[in-house]
């Protein structure tokens, strides 16, 4: 039980400053444990994407630490960084699939950290992956419910289907933690519900912590177990979903509050 309570991800005093002394992330600290689905909320330009990208070293921080199972990813270099990065799955808003490859081939790319051959893309992708890796890729497709799309080119799919391919690719990676940067921003409401439902089910069934950037308060209330609120790079809220009041949301979102409160029910409460 003690091990279960230990944080998988720990962010300590993380700061990222851009030219012009713009503090995109300002001294942010929080922890995420197994099985949590944490929604990071905030207006556009709040620093949400910078925060996530610092957490897997797509962007280098100025100060602070990001610990994954006790190992500081901000201090890793070379092979050690690649190894630790493989423990951090990343899902992007724009899917980042290879259009000409099939769905299965895109998901199989998630197994790259589990093969020693660096030339997988110079010929048939299947040549450099053993049957175990292929089975894990197919199992990932089954988990997100699109195994029937395995032979299709990824650029023939809808946006919601492509995002599920991206989730399957991340699952095939077998990460310790999943970061999702606005994964539903370009999707219709039905696809958004489906994608976030899959992420929540993964978090609960596989006990993998998921940190997801969102703009919509109602989606965070529906799917997250905890909310982190960011405004101008500052941590404004870190607590349970039920404690994230509309007054707090109004403070964090400012002029973007109306766009963040999507459902009629929440809008009626906000107007009361």
Automatic annotation (TrEMBL):
Gene3D superfamilies membership: P-loop containing nucleotide triphosphate hydrolases
Gene Ontology MF annotations: ABC-type phosphonate transporter activity; ATP binding; ATP hydrolysis activity
Keywords for the protein's UniProt record, in alphabetical order: ATP-binding, Cell membrane, Hydrolase, Membrane, Nucleotide-binding, Translocase, Transport
UniProt cross-references to InterPro entries, sorted A to Z: AAA+_ATPase, ABC_transporter-like_ATP-bd, ABC_transporter-like_CS, ABC_transpr_PhnC, MetN_ABC_transporter-like, P-loop_NTPase
GO cellular component labels: membrane
Record flagged with keyword Secreted: no
EC number of this enzyme: 3.6.3.28
Name of this chain's protein: PhnC: phosphonate transport ATP-binding protein
Recorded superkingdom: Bacteria
Gene name of the encoded protein: phnC
Domain ABC transporter: residue ranges: 9-257
């Amino acid at each position: 039980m003690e091990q279960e309570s230990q944080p998988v991800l720990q962010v300590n005093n993380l700061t990222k400053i851009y030219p012009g002394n713009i503090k995109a992330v300002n001294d942010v600290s929080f922890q995420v444990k197994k099985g949590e689905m944490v929604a990071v909320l905030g207006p556009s330009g709040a620093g949400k994407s910078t925060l996530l990208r610092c957490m897997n070293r797509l962007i280098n921080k100025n100060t602070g630490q990001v610990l994954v199972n006790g190992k500081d990813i901000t201090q890793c270099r070379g092979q050690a960084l690649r190894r630790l990065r493989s423990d951090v799955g990343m899902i992007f808003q724009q899917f980042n699939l290879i259009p000409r490859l099939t769905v299965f081939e895109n998901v199989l790319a998630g197994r790259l950290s589990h093969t020693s051959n660096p030339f997988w893309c110079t010929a048939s992708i299947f040549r450099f992956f053993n049957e175990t890796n292929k089975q894990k890729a197919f199992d990932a497709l089954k988990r997100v419910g699109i195994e029937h799309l395995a032979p299709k080119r990824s650029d023939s799919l809808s946006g919601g289907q492509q995002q599920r391919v991206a989730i399957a690719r991340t699952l095939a990676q077998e990460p310790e933690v999943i970061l999702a940067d606005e994964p539903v921003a370009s999707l219709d409401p039905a696809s958004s519900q489906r994608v976030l439902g899959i992420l929540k089910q993964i978090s609960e069934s596989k006990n993998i912590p998921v940190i997801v950037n969102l703009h919509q308060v109602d989606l965070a209330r529906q799917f997250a177990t905890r909310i982190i609120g960011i405004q101008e790079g500052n941590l404004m809220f870190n607590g349970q979903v039920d404690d994230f009041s509309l007054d707090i949301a109004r403070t964090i979102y400012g002029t973007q509050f109306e766009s963040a409160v999507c459902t009629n029910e929440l809008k009626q409460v906000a107007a009361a």
